[in-house]
Amino acid sequence: MQQDPLRPGDDQDRQSDSLNDSAAEDDREEGAGELSPRLAAFERVYRAEFGAVAAYFARRCEEPQLVADLTADTFVAAIHSFAGYDAARTGSRAWAIGFARRVYARYRESDPRERAAGGSSSAHRLLDRAETKELMWWIDIERSSRELMERLSKMSVLDREAVELVDLCGLAPGEAAAELGISTGALRVRLMRTRARLLREGDGLG
Amino acid sequence: MARFEDRLWTALVEQHGALLAEAPAAPLRAPAVRPRRLRRVPALVAGAATILAIVLALVIGLGSNRGASAFAVVTNSDGTVTVTIGELVGVTPADERLQQLGLPVRVVPVTAGCPTVPAQLRQAMLSPEEFRGIYQLAGGEQVASVRIDPSRIPHGDTLILRATERPGGAVALRALVIEGAAPPCLPPSPGE
Q1: Which residues of chain A does B3 touch, with a Cβ-Cβ cutoff of 8 Å?
Q2: Contacts of residue A99 in chain B, CB cutoff 8 Å?
Q3: For position B26, what pLDDT does the model report?
Q4: B140 touching A (Cβ < 8 Å)
Q5: Confidence of residue A125 (pLDDT cuts 50, 70, 90)
Q6: Within a domain: residue B5?
Q7: What is the side-by-side strand order in the sheet with B144-148?
Q8: Residue B124 domain flag
Q9: Could you say which of B1, B122, B126 has the minimum Cβ distance to residue A109?
Q10: For labeling, which of A125, B112, B175, B187 is most exposed (least CB within 10 Å)?
Q11: Closest CA to B38 of B84, B78, B73, B74
Q12: How close A58 comes to chain B (CA, Å)?
């Protein structure tokens, strides 16, 4: 874990480049005090949910570069909305996966030429051999989940997403229902029906 | 093992960390980031209206000409709007009523043969928290009813209530927020 960006001393050094008078230096010290808790709060969410987000994309893509880009896009969107995040109302997993779903939907809708151009993410150029290996690890461990996703592809979109959000992403039924815009009761019915169908047709959810 | 995770974090902080510095320090719950389209009713008026609303909800639209429960568009004292669709024939008049009110909300029917290409609609990038602030289910399993807070819909975006007819004539509503204007209809999704 790299803590440097969160160290108060680093914040002060960075801001002092643009602040010259004494009043500004006072502001700077206050600003440094405010910055760290919010960055630390976002980092807790990031560290807790990075794996779930990477796995979400690893179930859909076999290219490490693409998994990296989509994961980066997800957390860029998340950091832009973090001011409105209410941890008491929404678990961090549901919050992060919500962004991942929208990022993937937007990716699917995007022009292939735009995709080829690399989009807005800077993650692509970040990857080196070790990072590629790291993401390949996520892709490998999601292989069995991809097989399940293929079986689910024969079912309705809502049934498929209900199973993925609850059984693979680990959302609570209420969180998954809210994400899908249906009632918790309706989601439970869909879960039961889809799981039963999977069991009838094969080896189930394991 | 977590090399990419660490380097992405560093890039996020370097490129977007200022967003967190601009935000207030203490509360994690903050006002909407994007500008609001409508202001809420002032507190004094809202308080008086709340008392009245206990007795009487101001029913803006009721589908009396097409069946008593075909649709209802009700403005609530807190500035939210409740949209109820009882039958598919209520979709068009409910949509017209919402347009009359000048709200960025459209009720769009799902019809076979609709030429709209869903992939061409650009979904607004909202967090689940923001999405829930805009729209919440108001009815039960049998009634398609949603409560909407129009002031939370980002400027330029449109909340679409996607209306599908269920077996037996009931209507199912699903919500999505898109950038720009709503299409006149939507095609059924795979599996519907």
Answers
A1: 128, 130-131, 134
A2: 125, 127
A3: 38
A4: yes
A5: low
A6: no
A7: B58-62, B71-75, B81-85, B144-148, B135-137
A8: yes
A9: B122
A10: B112
A11: B78
A12: 14
Q: Which residues of A63-78 are buried (b: 16+ CB within 10 A; e: fewer)?
A: ebbbbbbbbbbbbbbb
pLDDT at B150: 86
Contacts of B5 in chain A (CB under 8 A): 47, 50, 54, 134
Residue B149 sits in which domain range? 71-179
Q: Which residues of B touch A75 (CB under 8 A)?
A: 8, 12
Residue B53 lies in a domain: no
**Domains: count for chain B:** 1
pLDDT digits (tens, 9 = 90+) for B107-166: 999 888 888 887 777 878 777 778 778 888 776 556 678 889 888 888 888 999 988 887
Q: Do the Cβ atoms of A81 and B130 come within 8 Å?
A: yes
In this prediction, residue A181 carries a pLDDT of 85
Contact A131 B7 (CB under 8 A): yes
What is the average per-residue pLDDT within A172-201?
90
Q: ipTM of the assembly?
A: 0.73
Q: Could you give the maximum distance between any two Cα atoms of chain A, in Å?
A: 73
pLDDT at B142: 60
The answer to the question of residue B188 being in a domain is: no
**Residues B9/A46, Cβ–Cβ less than 8 Å:** yes
What's this model's pTM, rounded to 2 decimal places?
0.52
Q: Which two tokens stand for residue B188?
A: 């059924």
